[in-house]
Amino acid sequence: MIRLNRPNETPHVLRHRGRARTRQDCEAYVRDPTAYVTGRRKLTFDASIFGAAAVKEDLERLQHNKCCYCERRTSGRIDHFRPKGAVRQSRGSDRLRPGYYWLAYGWNNLVLACEDCNLKKSDYFPLEDPGRRARSHLDSLDGEAPMLLNPYVERDPAQHLAFEGSACRPRTERGRVTVAVLGLNRPSLQEERQEVLSMLAHLSAVARHPEVPDTLRQEAREMMDGFARADARYSAMVRDYLSGAD
């Protein structure tokens, strides 16, 4: 996971159709909050708004066509950082309804995630203190301390996540929760990360070998730097690797 930057300009479809639907959903909740809390009534969400082509294209550009969580190359799915329909604190906890329905079309709540991360995350959204969870649009989010890392919010995800070979290792409790919820050490991810590490090890050997011509050594170093660019897959792991190789 690397730091991502989101522009303040909200996509047109969210600014207009999204805000209108949000207003309708909030009004519906206020008319009968008990029905939505008990699950007797459920809000429906319009994927043609939050999943509009323009929204997805913007997120693909901002995320370099990578999953915002694991950095796998992906066409991706729109994920709601704070789940919209229902929310759970942990795998053993009850599902609370409704979820963060008022953020269903919120630009700052939308990310692009690969299918695996999306399915793993599901409606889990653990908080440091679940008693301070906002339960409706009438509550403030200011009291919430999310345990999941958000690459658009964290100043530096590397403060929470490190790498030991191809394995993602938490540095903090928030890092531990993020790895567990998203399955950031699933075998398929580690296999792909190991492929990148193998290429880096080869390039590093070339760059350090005294008998290799200077031009080739420089080319190897430049290729290694390219693996660390924001648009390269698994760049957080590569940066961690290169920092240890200095």
The residue-averaged pLDDT reads: 96
Strand order of the largest sheet: 1-2
- List how many beta strands DSSP finds: 4
Helices and strands, in order, run as HHHHEEHEEHHHH
Distance between the termini: 21 Å
Helical segment count = 9
- Which structural category do the helix and sheet elements fall into? mainly alpha
Per the principal axes of the C-alpha atoms, what is the gross shape?
elongated
Helix content: 40-55%
Q: Low-confidence parts lasting 5 or more residues at pLDDT below 50?
A: none
- The percentage of residues in β strands lies in 5-15%
Largest sheet: 2 strands, antiparallel
- How large, in whole angstroms, is the Cα Rg? 21 Å
Keywords:
single chain; mainly alpha; two-stranded antiparallel sheet; elongated
Quick description:
Helices cover 42% and strands 7% of the residues. By secondary structure, the protein is mostly helical.
Structural summary, described in words:
The strands form two sheets. A two-stranded antiparallel sheet has the order 1-2. Strands 3-4 form a two-stranded antiparallel sheet. α7 runs antiparallel to α8 (214-227). The chain has helices at 12-31, 33-38, 47-50, 53-62, 115-121, 173-182, 187-208, 214-227, 235-245; strands spanning 77-80, 110-113, 161-164, 167-170. The two termini are 21 Å apart. The protein is 42% helix and 7% strand. β3 (161-164) and β4 (167-170) form a beta hairpin. The protein has 246 residues and is mainly alpha-helical. It is elongated and about 75 Å long. The protein has nine helices and four strands, in the order ααααββαββαααα.
